[in-house]
Every structure is written in structure tokens, then in C-alpha cells.
User: Which sequence fits this backbone?
């Protein structure tokens, strides 16, 4: 089973990396770029076929390691 | 218009960050985790309504700044 995890910074938390990317794009002439938010994207292969078990385990992985839930949100998708 | 950009490391390029995450998950007892790949996820607000123009500009942004096309692939989605 393949899992895709998206980790994003919460809406009300400052994103300095996003601001830096926005500034760089403006400097390069892409003036139409407004707010930029940068997050993480993970692809995991899971050696399991039980979907609900996989969801439980993935939630635990996100809570414990993949996301810092104080400042980040996460969501995931399962395939296969 | 809102754009979502996914930047991922090419399949045949080593991903040390992914290996580190996989190792950490194994150490924490998530033995079912196989290969892990880590990428970037960006959300951009674009002040434009012309979809094909936005696609051209986003491709330029990805080629010039957001992705290192030697070792990374990118794809994007446009909404609104």
C-alpha cells in the first residue's frame, strides 16, 4: 500500500521559508505571486493490506514524528 | 488563482532525508514502512485569471527557482 502525506504549516503560523520564496520570485520578475506557503510531501510504502490499520498507524507516525502538531497540520492519502 | 506545486526527488537519485525518516520510523516500531521519499509541497496565490498564462509562468518559476531539475521532478495543479 502506498501512502502520501502532506505536512503544512498552520494558517496562523508565520512561514519564513514561504516569505523567502515569495521575495525571490518577486525579485525574479514574478510579480503576480501572492502568499506562498511551503510544506512537506512524503511518499511511504507500507507493507500492509489492511486499510483501517494503515490509517491508524499513519496517524501515529504523523503525530509522533512526521509533523510537529503544535505548528503543523497533516493529511494523508492511501492507495492500493 | 491558487497553485499547488509538488517537488519530488527523481526515482534514481538517493534521498538521504527519506532514508533517515525510514530509519527513525523503524526505530519507533513502525516496521511495516518500506521506502520513504521526501519532497516539497508549495501553495502559491497567483494574481491572474488566465489559466494558460499561469501555467507558462508556473513552469518558469519551477524551472528557475522552485525545483532543481537535475535531481528533482515537479508537477503543479491550478485551482480557481
Assistant:
Amino acid at each position: 500500500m502506498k501512502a502520501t502525506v502532506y505536512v503544512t504549516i498552520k494558517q496562523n503560523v508565520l512561514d519564513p521559508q514561504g516569505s523567502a520564496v515569495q521575495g525571490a520570485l518577486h525579485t525574479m520578475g514574478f510579480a503576480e505571486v501572492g502568499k506562498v506557503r511551503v510544506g512537506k510531501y512524503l511518499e511511504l510504502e507500507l507493507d500492509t493490506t489492511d486499510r483501517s490499520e494503515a490509517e491508524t498507524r499513519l496517524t501515529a507516525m504523523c503525530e509522533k514524528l512526521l509533523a510537529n502538531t503544535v505548528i503543523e497540520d497533516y493529511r494523508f492519502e492511501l492507495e492500493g
